[in-house]
Structure formats: structure tokens, C-alpha cells
Design goal:
Chain lengths: 165, 496
């Protein structure tokens, strides 16, 4: 494991998993490919009478080229992503938002609020159940007063049981 | 005087009890949200935008404009009191503002920031009133080719002038353009990139994009980084600046206003760059440059004047040409479109009450900021003391409610989560999100103008270079590209 420094650098350079520009370029190329692939199903038309596939196909092509440039530059420079990836907060925050949408449509405002507050708070560095309970209570009162009474948004507090109108 | 009667008309609109109330509400809410660290005007507008849906167009835009400079102002308060700016435009204010706060001069720093902003706001408002009508008249000469070239120039500028890498900036512009195309194509009625999801037929809502890209991604970034913020918690006494403070900051304020006004009009620049440029300018012409960064009052007054002047003159290209000069203006433009108003030169003739009403309300909003914020500074400080572990779940919750309330649909909320994930990954890979927003708003318009121009020219692409105005914009675009490529080429030669 005592490889020379040059060898180490060489390995880091080709470790693409955390290569900043390689990853960015890859994302752009993939989006570009997707855009072009889907646009092929739309009528292209001519330069004079452009069909609905013309503009997106051109944009997708440009994105593939630019993305490839960024990608190649990443391989050459080997620059890495700064800092750690925050996968845990990312997953929990995204989950909390999805839960809100899911529960809001099915169970009503209060369950949705509680879910988003609890799950997102779990993504923080400190999680204190009591504090989040207090926060949920405060936000519920706020939601009733401001959203439902003042702004008259048409949502049930708890679906099937509590309607305010 | 035409201008005077127009302004009087505008004040008549803005001083109606209803509009005054919305201006007040906007400024207050904007400041409240802008004070929170990590939340800038873009997110504030994106989050509160659904609230304005049910309002009449004039009131909605007055309120959104109020949120905009309220948030901008709140951001500078945060910069002075916490060594962590609420948004990029006030990042420069941190340098000297925070040092002043540490020296026990937070009061004067806040007061000077407020007064400099107010002065710049007055000048900016006057400039819009003066420049608006002739520019709009000029814009009536524009055909489809001119609009396309102008939009191209704006997009290239936004990528070139972005803080990060230029090529990635271009990529973000193109991604934004593509996102803007999702939904029903106006020409053929064909649904594009909807992947069979019914909710996407109207396109991706911009609340989804802005909230996901900025608010959600920002919260995750904050949680993932281990930086701690140091809040200045000592009680703020004595807001009054001394006579020397006033004398020292008078000229920097004027210079900052001038720089900010110019930069605000240029597409793609906006408040952030202007405050940075003025700061450098002040440092350069100062007798003793070493004072900067150690609590020089000029370092607070000049950038604050610049970013507020730019925030005002930002409206000029949007209101008169229908071209957003910054991501925030792209949002305002989106808000106008939602209200059924097509931004462009015809706004002034078709909706004069909107145009002049907004201008008058800008001045009123700036006045409200000074009157409101200096006495309320204690409240903003106590807001800054709220621990982040309480704030961020609430921010996420408001993002969810905001997204849900646009269409009462869960799909928008799911999309926002997806955009948030992508936004965080892109931010981590150092891709600036602002050019994406510009592309997203301009996407459908650009396609429309391109199609129309090509149809009129019978498929001859040289039309963009043979019409003089269009040619001028194209030359501008090429010049900007040249400026961007030149240092890259030189850099390579240096390496070889």
C-alpha cells in the first residue's frame, strides 16, 4: 500500500466517482441524450417551418457537446468534489417533501405537516422529539389561522373529519 | 411634463388603500424571509409567489416587488449581524459590516446601509420612470429576429458573468431552456417531454423549479456542511451614525448608486456583481485601502447603494423589452405571464396602471423599508437567534405548502423534491443555478421567436445578421463569447 506519491495522484485522477467536472459533464450529456432521443418522436419540420422537435433536438445536441467538453476537462484536471456529500440530509429532506404531497392529498393538512416536520428534522444534526412536537403544534396553529382562515385555502385539517369553511 | 403626470398617475394607483397594504405586506414578509440566513430574494419570491395568485395583477406585482427589495434589505441586515450573508448580493457587505458590528457599531452600520439603500432606491426609481418610455418605444421596432438575438445575448451574458465556471453556466442555460419546453407546444398543440404525466401538460411550474433548486438544495447544503454561524447577539444601541459616518459615506453612496444603476440594466449581471464591483472601486480610490475589511463604513454604504440601485434598474429591461436581466426578474416575468400579462413594450400602453403603479410602489416600498426596519431591527436580531434546527423544517414545510397550493396537486410537490435532489447534486458539482432559471423562463419565448423569424425569412438564417438591430445584438453576443474564450486560450498557452 506504500505507493509513491505520483502513483497515488494517478489513481486519484482516474477515480471518477468523486470527480467534480466528470460527474457534472456526465449529467449534462445524459440530459442531452434524453432530450434528443425523445425529440426524435416529434415532427422535425424544416428550418423554415420548424416542427415541435426542431428546437429541443438542437438544444439537446448543444448540451451533449458542451457536456462532453466539461466531462473531458474533468478527466484531465481530476479536480474532486469539495467537502462531503450530505446523502443523509438529502434523502430525508426529499422523503419529507414526498410524504407531504402523499399525505396532503389523502389524510389532510395536519398529518402532512407533522410528517414533513418530523422527517426533515431527522435530517438535521440534532433531533429532539420534544422540540419537533412543539414546532408541529405551533405550525398547525399557524396553518389554521393563516392558511385556512386568512387565505381561505380549501384544505381539510384531517381528511374526512375536520373541515373548516 | 409628461413624466410628472405619469408618476402622479402611478402614485394614484399605488396609494390606493389595497395596493398600499400589499406593498406593506410584501416588504414586511420579504424582510422577514430575507433575514433568514441562506434565503435570498429568489427563494422568498418563489415561496410567496402562490400567495399572490388570487390578487389582481397590479396588487400581485406590487407585492412581489415589495418582497424582492424587502428580501434584499433583509439580506444586508443578516450580513451585518451574522458573518453569513442571506444571499450573494450582500456577500460583500459582510466584509466590513460584520467588522463594524464586532466593534460595537452595528447600529450605525445598519442605519448607513438603510439610508444608502434608500437613496439608491430613489435614484433607481427615477431612472426607470425616465428610461422606460423611450426604451419601450424603441422596442416597438423589434421584430422576431431582434427578440431572438436579444434573448440570446441575455442568456450568453448570464452564463459568462456567472460566478462559477462559464461552460457549466452554458450547460445550465441549455438545461433551463429544455425544462421550459416541457408541456404543450403552443404551435402544434403537441405535448412534449410529459412522459405521460397529465400534470406536466401545462409545463413544470416555476415555483417547483425555484423552490427545489434554491430553497431545498440550500437547506440540504447547510445541513451537510459543518460550518457554524456566529451570530452577533449583543443588544444594538444607538442606531444614529455620527456626522463623520455620514460625511464618509456620502460619496461612496453616490458612486455605488451610479455603478449599480448601470449594472442593473445589463442582462445577466444584477445586484450581486454590482456590489462587488463598487467595493473594489472604493477600495481602489480610498486614501487608505488597508481600512477595508476592518470596518470601513464606505465598505457598507457603497455596495448597499449599488445592490439596491441595481435591484431597481433590473426592472427596466423586463418592463420595457420583456427580457429579464437576472434570475429574480425572470421570476417576476413568470409572475406577469401567470397573471395574463405579456411582458414587453406593450405593457406601458396597454396596462399603464400596472407600469406606473409598480414604479410608484417601488419608491413607497423603499420608504417603508427605512421607516419599518430601523425600529424593527430588534425583531430581526431575535429571529437570527432562532436555532437552525427549528428553522429548516419550517422552511421545508412552507416550500411544500407553497408548491401544493399552486395547483392543489401532489405531483408538483413530488417534482419539487426531485428538482431539489438534482439541484443539490448540481450545486455540489459547482454548477450555478441562476442561468438555468433565465433559460427556463426564456425557453418557450425563444423558440417562438426563432420559429417566427425563420418563417418570415423563408428559412434563411442570415436574417439574424442582416437586420441592423439584430446584428448589433449578435455582435454583443460574440464579443461576450470572445471575452470568455480569450483568457482560456491564454491560460493554455501559459501552461504549454
Amino acid at each position: 500500500m506504500q505507493g509513491s506519491r505520483a502513483e497515488w495522484n494517478f489513481c486519484m485522477r482516474f477515480d471518477l466517482r468523486n470527480n467534480r467536472d466528470f460527474l457534472a459533464g456526465l449529467i449534462f450529456v445524459l440530459i442531452g441524450v434524453l432530450a434528443v432521443a425523445v425529440a426524435r418522436d416529434y415532427p422535425m419540420g424544416t428550418a423554415m417551418r420548424m416542427g415541435s422537435g426542431y428546437f429541443p433536438a438542437v438544444l439537446g445536441g448543444i448540451l451533449i457537446l458542451l457536456g462532453a467538453w466539461v466531462l473531458a476537462r474533468g478527466i484531465r484536471s481530476g479536480e474532486k468534489v469539495k467537502g462531503e456529500w450530505g446523502w443523509k440530509p438529502l434523502a430525508l429532506i426529499a422523503l419529507s417533501i414526498v410524504l407531504f404531497g402523499f399525505l396532503m392529498a389523502r389524510l389532510g393538512l395536519i398529518p402532512a405537516l407533522a410528517a414533513v416536520l418530523f422527517v426533515s428534522a431527522a435530517g438535521g444534526r440534532e433531533f429532539r422529539v420534544k422540540e419537533v412536537l412543539v414546532l408541529t403544534a405551533l405550525m398547525s396553529v399557524f396553518a389554521v389561522l393563516v392558511l385556512l382562515y386568512l387565505l381561505k385555502m380549501p384544505y381539510p385539517l384531517i381528511a374526512g373529519y375536520l373541515w373548516i369553511s | 411634463m409628461d413624466i410628472l403626470s405619469n408618476l402622479a398617475f402611478g402614485f394614484g394607483v399605488a396609494f390606493s388603500l389595497q395596493n398600499l397594504a400589499y406593498c406593506f405586506a410584501g416588504v414586511l414578509l420579504g424582510t422577514l424571509i430575507g433575514v433568514l440566513p441562506g434565503i435570498g430574494p429568489l427563494v422568498a419570491i418563489g415561496m410567496l409567489f402562490p400567495l399572490t395568485f388570487t390578487l389582481p395583477p397590479v396588487a400581485a406585482l406590487i407585492m412581489l416587488a415589495g418582497i424582492y427589495y424587502g428580501a434584499q434589505y433583509g439580506g444586508s441586515t443578516t450580513s451585518i449581524l451574522v458573518n453569513l450573508p442571506g444571499e450573494t448580493a450582500s456577500a460583500v457587505t459582510c466584509l466590513d459590516g460584520y467588522q463594524m458590528a464586532r466593534q460595537g457599531r452595528a447600529g450605525p452600520a445598519l442605519a448607513v446601509a438603510a439610508l444608502a439603500s434608500f437613496f439608491a432606491g430613489c435614484v433607481g426609481t427615477l431612472l426607470i420612470a425616465l428610461a422606460g418610455p423611450p426604451l419601450a418605444e424603441w422596442a416597438l421596432l423589434f421584430g422576431a429576429a431582434e427578440y431572438f438575438s436579444l434573448m440570446l445575448m441575455a442568456l450568453v451574458a448570464s452564463a459568462v458573468l456567472t460566478q462559477g465556471d462559464v461552460v457549466k453556466g452554458f450547460c445550465m442555460v441549455v438545461v433551463g431552456l429544455l425544462l421550459g419546453l416541457v408541456g404543450t407546444d403552443v404551435n402544434s398543440g403537441m405535448a412534449r417531454y410529459t412522459f405521460g404525466v397529465m400534470e406536466l401538460y401545462d409545463g413544470i411550474g416555476f415555483t417547483v423549479i425555484v423552490v427545489g433548486l434554491f430553497a431545498v438544495a440550500e437547506v440540504v447544503s447547510n445541513l451537510a456542511s459543518s460550518e457554524t454561524r456566529e451570530v452577533f447577539t449583543r443588544k444594538i444601541e444607538n442606531l444614529m451614525p455620527t456626522q463623520k459616518d455620514i460625511r464618509d459615506s456620502a460619496w461612496p453612496t453616490v458612486r455605488g448608486t451610479a455603478v449599480g444603476s448601470v449594472f442593473g440594466v445589463l442582462p445577466g449581471t444584477g445586484p450581486a456583481l454590482s456590489s462587488f464591483v463598487t467595493y473594489m472601486l472604493e477600495k481602489k480610490i480610498a486614501k487608505d485601502p488597508s481600512r477595508f475589511g476592518k470596518g470601513a463604513i464606505e465598505g457598507v454604504a457603497a455596495p448597499e447603494a449599488a445592490n439596491n440601485a441595481a435591484a431597481q434598474t433590473n426592472f427596466i429591461p423586463m418592463l420595457t423589452l420583456g427580457i429579464p436581466a437576472s434570475a429574480v426578474m425572470a421570476l417576476m416575468m413568470g409572475a406577469m405571464i401567470v397573471q395574463g400579462i405579456t411582458p414587453g413594450p406593450q405593457v406601458m400602453t396597454q396596462n399603464p396602471e400596472l407600469f406606473w403603479g409598480i414604479i410608484a410602489s417601488m419608491w413607497i416600498g423603499n420608504l417603508l423599508l427605512v421607516i419599518l426596519n430601523l425600529p424593527l431591527v430588534g425583531i430581526w436580531v431575535s429571529l437570527l437567534k432562532v436555532p437552525y434546527r427549528w428553522l429548516f423544517p419550517s422552511i421545508i414545510m412552507f416550500c411544500c405548502i407553497g408548491n401544493y397550493s399552486v395547483n392543489n396537486s401532489a405531483v408538483d410537490v413530488y417534482l419539487c423534491a426531485l428538482v431539489g435532489v438534482i439541484g443539490y447534486v448540481l450545486a455540489k458539482l459547482e454548477c450555478e443555478p441562476a442561468p438555468l432559471i433565465l433559460g427556463y423562463v426564456l425557453g418557450p419565448l425563444m423558440e417562438e421567436y426563432l420559429r417566427r423569424a425563420m418563417l418570415l425569412a423563408r428559412g434563411d438564417a442570415t436574417v439574424f445578421f442582416t437586420r441592423p438591430l439584430s446584428l448589433a445584438f449578435m455582435i454583443g453576443t460574440v464579443l461576450m463569447l470572445a471575452v470568455m474564450i480569450a483568457p482560456a486560450v491564454r491560460g493554455k498557452r501559459g501552461q504549454a
